C-alpha cells in the first residue's frame, strides 16, 4: 500500500472553549482531512488520542446526515477533561460529499488507513504532545490496528470487529435476516475469488451494489485478528453488552488474538457508547438523540489506560 504523507497544516484556527481549561483548534491536515484538536490547558506534553470514526460518511462528532448523537464529540470532551488531548476528524468521504464530487467507485478502504497514517505522522512531528494513541470505533478499529503499526504508542479498539468484514456481515444477517445469510455467504465468496459478485438477491443490493464491490473486496483483505497480533504496543479492547451491530464475540476474538490486551465489557452500553436499559427500540432511537451522554465508564477506562502507560 502506497502511503502519501502530507505533513503541512493547510488551515488552523483557535478557540478557547467555554469550559474552563480547554482549548479547541480546527485543523486541516490535508485537503480532505478536517478535524478538531482539543487541548487541556496548563499541561505540558499531554498524551494525544486520535479518534477514528466508524463506517459511512461519519463526521468528527460521530454523526451522519440523518443521524446525530455526538458520540465522538462527547468522548473527546470527556478525555480532555481527564487531561488527554484529542484529535477527531471528518472521514474524507464527508469532505468529498460537501464538494459534490463523490464517486463511489473511487472510494478505497486503504484511503482511510492512509488518512490515519498521515494524521498520526503529522502529530508525531508536533512537539506539544507526549505519546500518541489511536482510538478506533467500529470500522475505525481495524483502521487503527493497521495504521498504528510501528507508529503509535498504543491502540484502543471500541466496538471493533474480530473477524473479516464478510464474516461479520453474514453473522449479522443470520440474526437479523436469516433468509439472506446463505446468499450473502455465496456472494462474498464470489467476490473474494472472482473480484465480482453478481448472483446476489435483491434484498442484498445495498451491500453488493457494483459501485462499492471494489471497496468491500479491499476491506475483506484485512483480518483484525492478524492485525492486532502484529502490534507491539499496549492495546485496549472495549465492547458493550447492548451493541446491536458488533457482538461480544467479536471483542472476544480480538482478545484471543492479543492475550495481553486490556479488556472491558461495559454493561448496558450500545454501539455508540450510550447507556441502554430498555429494548431494541430504545437502542435504535439513541442513534439520533444527542442529549444522551457517553457512558462515563468508557471515558474513565480509556483515560486511565492512556495515562498509565
What is the chain-wise order of helices and strands? EEEEHEHHEHEHHHHHEHEHH
Cα Rg:
19 Å
Mean pLDDT: 93
| DSSP helix fraction | 25-40%
CATH structural architecture of the largest domain: 3-Layer(aba) Sandwich
State the CATH topology of the largest domain. Answer: Rossmann fold
SSE inventory with pairings:
Blueprint: E1 11-16, E2 22-30, E3 33-40, E4 48-52, H1 71-81, E5 85-89, H2 92-99, H3 109-124, E6 132-137, H4 139-147, E7 154-158, H5 165-176, H6 178-194, H7 205-208, H8 213-220, H9 224-229, E8 235-240, H10 248-257, E9 262-266, H11 280-285, H12 296-308
Parallel strand pairs: 4-5, 4-6, 6-7, 7-8, 8-9
Antiparallel strand pairs: 1-2, 2-3, 3-5
Give an overview of the whole structure.
- The chain has 309 residues and is an alpha/beta fold.
- The chain folds into 2 domains: 240 residues, Alpha/Beta hydrolase fold, catalytic domain (Rossmann fold), CATH 3.40.50; 57 residues, no CATH class.
- Helices cover 39% and strands 18% of the residues.
- It has a 9-stranded mixed β-sheet with strand order 1-2-3-5-4-6-7-8-9, with helices on both faces.
- Helix 1 links the parallel strand 4 and strand 5.
- Helix 3 crosses helix 4 and helix 5 packs antiparallel against helix 6.
- The N terminus is likely disordered.
